[in-house]
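Risk register update: the risk of archive-format incompatibility is retired. Evidence:
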Amino acid sequence: MTWPQVSLVEYAGPAPVRPGPGSGCGDQPGASVVICAYTQDRWGQTRAAVKSVIGQIPGPREVLLVIDHNADLAARARRELRNVIVLENDGIRGLSDARNTGLRAARCAVTAFLDDDAVARPGWLASLVEPYGDPDVVATGGSIHPRWPASRPRWLPPEFDWVVGCSYRGLPESAGVIRNPIGANMSIRTRLALGVGGFDSAIGRTAMQPRGCEETVLAIRLTACYPRSSVVYVPTASVDHHVAGERTRFRYFVRRCWHEGQSKAYVVCSVGPGAGLDRERRYLTSVLPGALVRDLLELLAGDPRGLTRMTATAAGVLATVGGYVTGRARFRLHRGAEAAVRCPE
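Archived output:
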């Protein structure tokens, strides 16, 4: 698929400032950037994320920092950060409603999202917004590169980098249509996202529960409601994502896979098994078998890391499937049959 080239000056703007009444993007093409934060433990990373966004050329029209139920962090952000609009999550604690708070406050046609522990590379915003020259594009996502605390765990297969919130082997290597982006680095048409209800607050990460897939549900609802629409993956829209030390442990790996299965169960109950499991079927039948063959060949060649990665792959699949099966049973018990996607009139 080829998208018309968009002149960057169409959505370029000055360095973001706190808007007064009636100001902002209005109906002009432009990009708001939302960063969600919840803890002061990441303050240095949050500042780096904000700095990387403000330093984009061309820059965003506005930067919205949404604080998730942490009044002290919100006060500190207002004291120490300039050219940033600081908001507080006015909904349920967690990433989904924090993102919804930013989405509702955004004044631009496109809203981009960056995690508070990620740093945008030069050209990130320009690449992320460029596909919107095609009116059928409703969302975009970029590549996410892990920034390990020391070195990459030898046992972790690259096909499972989604466990640490990063791009994984199995995604397209060039720009193309995908089902959904990864929330740490994505953008969406603001009004359309609000029109289908925004991010589902019934799922989404909290400090104690590493569930996700809220961006998956939103992307599926968008493409289901708007004929011919598409979500585009743009690898050149790159960010570096800090990986906390605890996320490099095998115990976290298994726990995260379990919760991913639970999240997938909710996706299926929300939008049905067709779109809800389309990418997962290809992942299980094509991507992971290829990984096992590669690791087996490495083991036979005398590299013991092949065995550890094969073990991790098996454990990850079992944990994910186990989470999915128990999640499906629980959701069916409490909610009944799958819900149909409801589109705005």
